[in-house]
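[audit] Reproducing an earlier prediction to check determinism. Same input, same settings, fresh worker. If the tokens differ from the archived copy the diff job will pick it up downstream; this log only records the rerun itself.
[audit] input (392 residues):
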Amino acid sequence: MRGHRKHLPTSKDISGCAISGIMNEAGERFSGDMIIGSIATMHDRSNGLGGGFAAYGIYPDYKDHYAIHIMYDELADRQSTERLIARYCLLYEDESIPNRPSPVIRMRPFLHRYFVQVRPELLRRHSDLTEDDVIVDMVMEINTKIKGSFVFSSGKNMGVFKGVGYPEDIGEFYRLDEYQGYLWTSHGRFPTNTSGWWGGAHPFSILDWSVVHNGEISSYGINKRYLDNFGYDCSLFTDTEVIAYLFDLLVRKHHLPFEAACMAMAPPFWSQIEHLEPRRAELARTMRTVYAGALLNGPFSVLVGYSGGMVGFNDRTKLRPMVAARQGDMLLVASEETAIREVCPQVDRIWHAVGGVPIIGQLKDPAKVLGQPEAARLARMTRSLAPGAAAA
């Protein structure tokens, strides 16, 4: 990525960015054409310096394997990376990520994917580690210690596809119309403080967490130092990276319900807490006190995907837009209503997000979609929602 990082303008522009997410809560899979159509409607919110997608349920033949997507500056960078992967994992399949030649996608890195499982001896040797912990350690080591290699996706039965270009062009390049998934998120980038490069496009991902974001995280420095305490290395030159790691920390490792995790990142103002009902006021005080380093400052709207669902939320004063709609089992969330109406003209309900209050969509029967072991893991990780949660 060294050769793909600095070739585009670095001047600061006013933030635009487009985000869109579509989920079938019954777990029915649908083509990537739908999410491409949605994000393409908001073409003018991005400027061609980054586009990307996250897709869930796309690898049913390898649903029990971690799908590791990697960008290489040079093919020679593969050798050292694959030796490192072999220390952590057993390799079952690897291949170039399929793509179509495109006249508008230029100076791209080499794109490869690996389907792996964690070496059992590592778990026996380190009884306090889970498979997810091992994968996180591997991703952090590759991204910080091996030049020319960058892991941009590392979850099970899901994948991130991103690059420099408009999102509809990126979707065409990666042949996403040929994939079927039950949950898709997407992003059209309008960079504010960093240059456009392939690894800096959204979504940002760790394990099955994927984050697309519109806005600016002015608390990035504090958030980065906070995450350093828990072994997360922020190395991707963009503020959005911290959000993916915060969700992994707060939900997977600390077992917070989604409402509590979102409240830690976008809590009510102290002046508002005293007017909340007692249980929510106590929760808000706790989140602000215990997780002060997780608070996100700045204008933002965020859409998070994971194997069991989708979570959308924006900043406390709602300085970035977020619209949601329901149609049967479908939940749609986007920056603009037009991105929803384009792919779903008739909806049962449509509404604007409330500042700091999450919109939560979840699989109705995770075991049917993910399998019993993965569904059990997901249940342990996410638990039930806290009182007053804003499940959509």
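[audit] rerun output stored. Observation attached for the diff report: Residues 131-145 form the longest helix (15 residues).
[audit] end
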